[in-house]
Design the sequence.
């Protein structure tokens, strides 16, 4: 009996719920349809003018985007053209440099040879400077020796004159000492002249000294 009552209450509750749903279903359906139409109308234009306006707007956007792309493409073309010109100019310069490469090699070889020649000339110049220094030293020594020779010559000349005077006065008696002194002085003069001749490099100097020595012998 209790089971039958429970089944009846369950069936009655389901019937009441179905009745209530049948009463409120049209209202809920109308509300759902209204909301769906509102959502669709908010996303889609409601008139032909709005459709044309949207089309014009899209066309303008497309035109602007296309113009930007064309400007960018033109800029890229100009950059590419500039790089191409620079590359061609670089190729021309490389070709010109390759043409001048043999000349550069020749000039470089000539400069190397000139540098070696200059080094040789500098070495010879240094040798000549050393020779000049030696010659200056020898010249200084020769000048000193020549001064001594001239002094000795003057002394000999003076002694010879004194000897002649003494011989003239004394008749050759007491004048025998002077020729001995003169002979020793002549030997000193000859030694100095020989050293001068040995240190003098030029042939003219040697001839001059030899002439002087020969004159002294006479």
Sequence:
């Amino acid at each position: 009996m209790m089971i039958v009552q429970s089944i009846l209450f369950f069936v009655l509750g389901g019937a009441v719920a179905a009745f209530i749903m049948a009463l409120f279903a049209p209202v809920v359906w109308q509300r759902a349809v209204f909301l769906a139409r509102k959502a669709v109308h908010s996303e889609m234009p409601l008139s032909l003018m709005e459709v044309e306006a949207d089309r014009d707007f899209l066309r303008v956007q497309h035109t602007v985007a296309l113009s930007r792309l064309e400007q960018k493409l033109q800029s890229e073309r100009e950059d590419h053209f500039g790089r191409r010109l620079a590359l061609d100019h670089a190729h021309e310069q490389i070709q010109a440099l390759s043409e001048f490469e043999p000349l550069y090699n020749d000039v470089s070889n000539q400069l190397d040879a000139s540098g070696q020649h200059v080094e040789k000339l500098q070495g010879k110049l240094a040798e000549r400077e050393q020779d000049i220094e030696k010659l200056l030293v020898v010249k200084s020594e020769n000048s000193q020796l020549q001064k001594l020779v001239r002094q000795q010559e003057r002394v000999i000349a003076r002694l010879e004159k004194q000897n002649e005077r003494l011989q003239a006065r004394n008749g050759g008696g007491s004048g025998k000492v002077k020729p001995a002194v003169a002979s020793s002085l002549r030997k000193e003069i000859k030694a100095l002249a020989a050293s001068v001749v040995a240190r003098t490099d030029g042939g003219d100097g040697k001839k001059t000294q030899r002439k002087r020595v020969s004159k002294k012998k006479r």
